[in-house]
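ugh ok fine here u go
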Amino acid sequence: MRVLGIDFGTSNTVAMVRSTADARMRPLLFDGSPLLPSALYFNTDGKVLVGRDAERNARLDPARFEPNPKRRIDDGEVFIGDHPMPVPRLFAHVLSQVSIEARRQLGAAPEEVRLTHPARWGERRRSLLIEATRIAGLGTPRLIAEPVGAASYFTAVLGSAVPVGRSLAIYDLGGGTFDATVVRRTQSGFEVLAEDGLPDVGGLDFDHAIIEHLGKTYSDGRREKWEALANPTDASDRRLRRMLYEDVRGAKEMLSRTASTDIHLPSMDIDAHLTREELETLVRPYLERTVSCLSRAIESARLQPKDLVGIFLVGGSSRIPLAAHLIHTELGVAPTTLEQPETVVVEGALCIGAAVTPVRASGMPRTVTPPPQPQRPVPPVQRPTPPVSAVPMSPATHAPVSAAPMSGVPVSPAVQRPPAQPVVQPVVQPQRPVTPPPVARPPVQPPPVQQRPAVQPQPVFRPQPPPVQPQRPGPFPPQTVRPTPPQPDDDGSERNWIAVIVVVLVLVVILFAVLLKTAF
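structure:
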């Protein structure tokens, strides 16, 4: 099924399509942007321009330009130039532009249309919206309250958990109005518990406050030129006024990202400097009213701010950082903000009743990343060292290590990187050296000598090896005692040295005798 969702706003209209075949949502782009200005311009030939084309042609004849049709919901008829036009037909021109783009992207007419509206709109206003949809050729739409669509986005797209019976507050600050709503989660969706609003607070009112500030600051000595901008009387002045309002709106949006900006004042050749602090000073009274309105809506629902799952900020004007700051300060709840709050309502409306959470064509749904939890340090695990049964070998010579370990520090063999195919060496069990018991030799009987008494042999003293002391069990592997090499015979060494000395003396005497003989 091809579903078209439309959020008809005061300043901009947003539309998205969803196909149940691939569960993907795609925003409709108008001149490369998902935001379609809700403005209309009526040419002299009867052709109606919508969106940015209407804004560009508004400089030619501002009397044929309607920038905010939604604000004329209660006017019945609107005069565009010299021609009256009913409000439903005025709305239908904007919705027709959406229908043309949806047919081009889907390849056919949408099978279902979902249209959002403010929660405070009564039956009469909703009937005018339905009539406008039929005139645009979209059939009878399914109407969805804007806070319900925002709450669906909060749960379906952001993945935030709202248990059944819990409540969520929606702070909707758009271009023309402000709406505060408290919704509660039910088994089938969301229901509105309480709602409140301000019809005279929105982004357009912020623009007007900036214009008045510029007039007070830069009109000294240029009173006539400023009056022509503020209250134009001819087409030329109306074009200049339109240019001024466009620059002011762009500067306001820029100050949500930067600390300062410049605004060109046409016909005065002045680049007015405006800072974020000045903007916040101008809009603070309006934003304080919105926070008070939100507090009243929460009280009407018989809840406290701490009882809410969260406060969700939607609408293009909610980008102003001061709005979230005041809510957090006054109510003690940090609100949830988004980078593109204009598309929240229509995207949430398409998620209602979907068996599978739709996925945006540009990627996976955006999710709220929880703050990182501090990680507790994990104490190192002391693993017991298995007893080494093999004789420790030197890594270089593979010979037994005979050095004794240092006191208190176990000696570990050098760690070698295992080869690709390790060869398992047989484990050699250390063997204690076994000293054979001394062999009793019979006394040597010399040959008998006549007329001489038999000589008794003297006992030969041979050093006995020290007794082997049993090793005590300890934390170190048993060490193999290297056998002591045989010591040279001291008597033989002494005889060798005497012989060498004698030879040297003989040579010296011979040499001396030769020298004497030669001399004489």
